[in-house]
Amino acid sequence: MAVSPRRRQQLHHLAGFLVAGGSAFLVDAGILMLLVHFGANPFAARPFAIACAMVVGWLINRTWTFPMPGPPRLGEFLRYAAVAWLSVSINYAIYAGLLIVWPTMPLIEALVIATAIAMFFSYFGYRLIAFRKPRSAVSASGPKS
Fold first, then answer.
1. H or E element, residue 67
2. Is residue 127 part of a domain?
């Protein structure tokens, strides 16, 4: 059974998003656990871990998920950062809420739940805001889905 070029492109797009998100998650979780292991408060450690993960996610997303021409640009990064921080705020609020309501919940479990929920917001924000193509590029190549 042959896969159509359009379907192949959609699968590549989804795989890129999952690789970017998975990589960012591993950086986030790894730094969080490392900092907590060395005595940092789990609430204070998370923003630093998130900032590191955000840079990893941006670079992978701009390369594989939402390919952008040319070198990274400040405007693109600022749009990405705005969407990422809003998504992270959602993520962090859920993470903190889970740990407050269930203090014995394992940190990784709270992190996975919060990340899964925030993932949907981040995808659409990145697609529609951070990595939007200029109108001339969209009209020249046709609409992208």
1. none
2. yes
Sign of CA dihedral 134, 136, 140, 144: positive
The answer to whether residue 142 sits within a structural domain is no
144 lies in some domain: no
- Number of other CB atoms surrounding residue 35 within 10 Å: 17
Q: Convert the pLDDT of each residue in 59-85 to its tens digit.
A: 999 999 999 888 888 888 889 989 988
Give the C-alpha separation, 4 to 71, whole Å: 30
Is there a domain that residue 45 lies in? yes
Domain count of the fold of the chain = 1
Place 134 in a pLDDT band, splitting at 50, 70 and 90.
low
Domain around 57: 5-134
